[in-house]
Design a protein that fits this description.
Elements (H helix, E strand, L loop, with lengths): L4 H30 L3 E6 L4 E4 L1 H7 L3 H4 L19 H10 L6 E7 L5 E12 L5 E10 L1 H23 L4 E4 L6 E4 L1 H7 L7 H6 L10 H5 L6 E7 L6 E10 L5 E9 L1 H48 L1 H8 L4 E5 L6 E4 L1 H7 L20 H13 L4 E8 L5 E13 L2 E10 L1 H22 L5 E5 L4 E4 L1 H7 L3 H4 L12 H12 L4 E9 L5 E12 L5 E10 L1 H46 L7 H25 L8 E3 L1 H8 L9 E6 L7 E3 L1 H17 L5 E12 L13 E9 L32 H11 L3 E7 L2 E9 L2
Parallel strand pairs: 22-24
Antiparallel strand pairs: 1-2, 1-5, 3-4, 4-5, 6-7, 6-10, 8-9, 9-10, 11-12, 11-15, 13-14, 14-15, 16-17, 16-20, 18-19, 19-20, 21-23, 24-25, 25-27, 26-27
Length: 793
């Protein structure tokens, strides 16, 4: 067979295919190992089965260290910095790679450095189509992620700075004239114009302003900034406008304008000009008298300048100082010299500074104050530190910190002042104080409870409304966790906390909270995280609203609607049933009149008539229950009515009763028959709840409901009431049945005329409501207490 030509040919072909396969695998491995991307494979359990050379260099793991190891714990942390669960994410990728063809997540190098990688995932299947491995190809996108974060932070910081400036500022698109941003000062002046055309919002024009500076800022001969004066067409006030071309965070060039109101200055300039004209003649007359003194001063200045020029090293330090430095003659107060920083601070050249009185550095209305400060500094031998204000050439007032002292330059005593611009610091301080005051005011005067927690759930602050609603004072809670979530409400609360930590705002979430004295309140909660100065989550703010009264009223309204619907049906049935019953009673009476006393049928007639009487009582209940069953009121005493109802207990040996009925109880305006039905039904229920016997306690008292106590009985207006309590020692009502006890036809007993129809408490509720009162029930394993409140005139 070895000589079979066909077999030899097949063998050669097989050998060729093996060599080609080996060559293909070699080339594939070379491509993978030389790729500038992370390439790896994961098995079904998330273990690494392949790790290319680039991945080894990038993560710092050798092939021997990583192959066969789980990705989680080596190159994938269990959670991202943001808190996202990466264990769950990796498991989903390994099980369903087609659902995660592309994803980005945080990874970790061997040295602990966290990096972001964009992954492309591809399933590797076996012949049966089952996922055997996942091929993952990743590229480092850490730099891009950080750049986006930095860009967003830059934008937020820029807008925060703009909003803290007291002068009007806006930013517009030079192509569309759309207003992109407007700060608080300009919103206060002209309203929110974001999205509108700048010429419409700020000048009231239907087309671009003829004096628009876009061509100066963005044309061929564009300038970096443009300063100009303009009288606003809407307000009629003068503004010093400073326009600049800025690169907006989204990459486009925009026009930034800050306007300083100089209306008063323009008016002052007019007045000053008149005064200057009057003084001009006087100055000319005085010129001759002071020529000699000025000549001496000029000679002094020239000698000092010559000395400064000869001291090159000192001059360089003076010129290149970061802070503005001014030298002034202590006698005349005139400025002898200043450095480059002084020119920048005043926005003018030193030629326009030197030779002028030092008071020109400051706002004119405070000239006298600064002259006195200048004199005091020169007379004080020690260095003086002051905070003051300077005015720039453009009229802009800046806060500065001045370090002043007398010093010797060229054997001459001069007055030196070092000025540091503290504009940004002052604005930041003012903005911080205003923000703190504003937010504290909002918190303190909010009618709803507010609590602020740190990241660990410890209390940082609660407002007065929280203290009043829940009973705890801030001093009791600060730095502690509040244990006021009922056990049954923890699952939904925990879910809301997790959603909030994930960055989601929790809005109008309804749950329950307990107070310091043990009461349970229905509350509506809204919550969100807040951030610290470092941009990280610092805690969360929780807004709570007590909706207990609203929930109680909603339940009352729902119950009333149920009873109203059932009452309409009951009224119709009672009317028809009463007519039929009258015919039945008449026929029974006729039949009884024709039967002799000894007739065996007489007993049947008696039983039938007794059944008719029970039917008549049931018909009355239906009528009472129906919308037309309005009470026929008369004044009555609760004690008398309860005494009549206690006849139910006659002949019942295993049930006793006790009463606590004061003689000074107020009278009530009631329908005696309807109210007797109420008490009878409740006493009958108490008896039926104690099949083995017990005690029924009846008590009553006078109470007054005012504005403070109305919250505990939200469905009763303030006034005088008689409160009646009927208590038993029965099994109590199961919690799941308690919300339905007033529902028509709800009963846990057997149905029938002897056992009950489930209408007793429904009728009681309806009757008490029609009398302007309410019923409350408290129940437990030791028995049930029924509270009946009836208004007393």
């Amino acid at each position: 067979m070895s000589g079979d030509p066909s077999l030899n040919s097949l063998k050669k072909e097989l050998d060729g295919l093996k060599k080609a396969l080996a060559l293909s695998e070699t080339r594939y491995r070379e491509v993978v190992d030389t790729a500038n991307s992370v390439i790896l494979r994961l098995d079904h359990d998330g273990n690494i089965t392949f790790f290319n050379s680039f991945a080894q260099k990038f993560f710092g793991f050798s092939e021997e260290e990583i192959i066969g190891k789980p990705a989680v714990g080596t190159i994938v942390p269990e959670t991202e910095t943001s808190g996202r669960d990466l264990v769950d994410l990796l498991l989903k990728i390994c099980n369903n790679p087609d659902n995660y063809c592309a994803n980005e997540n945080e990874n970790i190098k061997k040295n602990g450095e966290r990096v972001w990688i964009a992954w492309t995932n591809k399933a590797i299947t076996d012949d049966a189509g089952q996922v055997r491995e996942v091929l993952c190809i990743g590229n480092d996108v850490t730099a891009a992620r950080r750049a986006l974060a930095d860009l967003d932070l830059e934008r937020r910081q820029l807008l925060s700075i703009f909003d803290s400036i007291d002068e009007p500022i806006y930013v517009s698109d030079p192509q569309t004239y759309d207003v992109l941003y407007i700060n608080a000062a300009l919103r206060k002046l002209l309203g929110d114009a974001t999205g509108k055309k700048c010429h419409e919002a700020f000048q009231g024009l239907d087309k671009p302003c003829p004096f628009c500076t876009n061509s100066s800022l963005f044309g061929e001969n564009a300038v970096s900034s443009y300063v100009w004066n303009q009288k606003n067409l809407i307000t009629g006030r003068w503004f010093r406008c400073m326009d600049k071309a800025l690169l907006w965070p989204d990459g486009r060039m925009v026009r930034y304008e800050m306007a300083v109101d100089i209306t008063e200055r323009m008016r002052s300039d007019e007045l000053l000009q008149d005064a200057h004209n009057e003084l001009a003649e006087a100055n000319r007359r005085l010129r001759a008298d002071i020529d000699q003194r000025q000549k001496a001063q000029r000679e002094l200045l020239e000698s000092q300048e010559a000395l400064l020029e000869s001291e090159e090293k000192f001059r360089l330090a003076f010129e290149n100082a970061v802070d503005a430095i001014f030298w002034a003659d202590p006698i005349t107060g005139r400025i002898l010299n200043c450095n480059k920083a002084a020119e920048a601070l005043l926005e003018t050249s030193r030629e326009r500074i030197i030779g002028r009185h030092q008071t020109v550095l400051h706002p004119p209305q405070k000239a006298v104050h600064y002259m006195e400060m200048f004199r005091r500094h020169f007379q004080t031998p020690r260095i003086a530190d002051e905070e003051a204000e300077i005015i720039t050439e453009s009229g802009f007032v800046k806060p500065v910190h001045i370090t002043a002292c007398a010093t010797v330059i060229g054997k001459k005593i001069i007055h030196q002042g070092i000025f540091r611009d503290i504009t940004h610091r002052k604005r930041a301080e003012d903005a911080l104080r205003a923000s703190e005051a504003r937010y504290r005011s909002l918190l303190e005067f909010s009618p709803d409870p507010i609590a602020v927690y740190d990241n660990e759930g410890r209390v940082m602050y609660v407002n007065p409304a929280f203290e009043e609603t829940f009973g705890w004072k801030l001093g009791e809670l600060i730095g502690k966790r509040i244990n006021f979530v009922p056990d049954e409400n923890w699952p939904e609360t925990r879910d809301a906390i997790e959603r909030m930590k994930a960055g989601e705002k929790v809005l109008l979430f309804e749950t329950r909270r307990s107070t310091k004295d043990g009461r349970i309140l229905d509350v509506q909660i809204s919550s969100s995280v807040f951030y610290g100065a470092d941009g990280k989550t610092a805690g969360n703010v929780v807004f709570l609203r007590d909706i207990t009264r609203r929930k109680t009223l909603e339940e009352e309204l729902l119950q009333a609607k149920k009873l109203e619907a059932t009452g309409v049906l009951a009224g119709g049935l009672a009317h028809d049933f009463g007519n039929l019953l009258a015919i039945l009673v008449l026929n029974i009476e006729l039949a009884r009149s024709r039967i002799s006393a000894g007739d065996p049928s007489a007993q049947f007639m008696e039983d039938a008539m007794e059944a008719c009487h029970r039917a008549r009582d049931l018909t009355y209940k239906f009528i009472t229950f129906s919308p037309g069953g309005s009470p026929h009121r008369s004044m009555a005493m609760i004690a008398d009515l309860l005494a009549e109802c206690l006849s139910l207990l006659d002949g019942v040996s295993d049930i006793t009763y006790s009463t606590a009925l004061p003689k000074d109880l107020w009278g009530v305006s009631i329908d005696r028959r309807q109210m007797k039905t109420v008490f009878t039904e409740i006493i009958r229920n108490a008896m039926e709840s104690m099949p083995e016997g017990g005690i029924i306690r009846l008590s009553a008292e006078n109470i007054r409901i005012d504005e403070k106590t109305a919250d505990s009985l939200p469905n009763l207006p303030p006034g005088r009431y008689v409160k009646t309590v009927i208590s038993d020692q029965g099994r109590g009502i199961p919690a799941q049945n308690l919300p339905r006890v007033y529902d028509p036809y709800f009963s846990t007993k057997e149905r029938g005329t002897q056992k009950g129809m489930g209408l007793g408490l429904s009728i009681a509720w309806s009757v008490v409501k029609r009398h302007g009162g309410t019923i409350r029930m408290e129940t437990g394993p030791g028995g049930t207490d029924v509270f009946i409140y009836l208004p007393a005139p």
